[in-house]
Amino acid sequence: MKKLKERIIKDGVILPGDILKVDSFLNHQLDPELLMEIALHFKEKFKHIDANKIVTIEASGIAPAVMLGYVMKLPVVFIKKKVPSTMQNMLVRDVRSFTKQRIYTVSISADYLTQDDRVIFIDDFLAYGNAARGVIDLCAQSGSTIEAMGFIIEKGFQGGGDELRHEGYEVVSLAIVDRIEDSKVIFRETDD
Amino acid sequence: MKKLKERIIKDGVILPGDILKVDSFLNHQLDPELLMEIALHFKEKFKHIDANKIVTIEASGIAPAVMLGYVMKLPVVFIKKKVPSTMQNMLVRDVRSFTKQRIYTVSISADYLTQDDRVIFIDDFLAYGNAARGVIDLCAQSGSTIEAMGFIIEKGFQGGGDELRHEGYEVVSLAIVDRIEDSKVIFRETDD
To answer: Could you give the CA distance from residue B192 to residue B23 in angstroms, rounded to a whole number?
Structure first.
């Protein structure tokens, strides 16, 4: 997605450890108009997918997921990064965070993810794919199927996306960062 | 907002301790179409407000805030419920959670909340107003001004909203729960 890549180059910040920060439009401050364009882009990429639900992870996944849910007319469920004390009937899984070097627990209510669900999983970033593995496991626990996954930015050099594709998952990333060189983002060539 | 109140009656669940759960359309599973209607409703209520930014708190505030940002053509910033290790220049404040009976730390980057900002604060719930107090303090730290606050559901019997109104804040709540009686929600009479 050309406009997204231009925005990453313009407003993204590279920190030590190849961390790409997009806090000014995606992870802290949000640009709703860009998010709507992202949603329309995902919708086009997923037009052959027969899904009935969008699933994402709090917090940065929620904005793109709800926009996509709006344009695809589908409900959205966001996975929580903890196990809420006031919720019952939760499916639970531990996930390792690369950026934050820690383990966190993700959970989703079995009321909102069932064997009848055909899921598109949406998230802001794909790196090693640890969050995606957590979601795959929660979907397996619930008996639901993952029809496709969509990521706004994939860090291609960390390999999670290619592993998922190799395993047969349909993975759409709107901008794939092939490498970071001299604090500059180099994108993988894609068809748009 | 009539449609919202009907939905709360239809799908809300009352737990012991007067906790109203709306997990099926607002706090865990999200109904994007309803969220768009909520955003349009807020936009109408705020048409006299000269704001340049929407501020909310992760996670449940993000979906309504990004929808409102979209229809009002304003950027959104979501306050984080922790202090991220990869972020600098953060404004920080402790907040007491009534529902969860604990203290948590909220933070926002001073890069995205400055003295030039005229803020509409959006959140899913208003109860005692503790989160709102945290946001008021973060805005004071940054030098920004709060032009208005919008909440989807206000628990009127917990008093936070009326206190804020008494202090002169413009507080718009789309559904005000006056009390919970025999596990039934009784709404305050409002003009729509």
So the answer is: 24
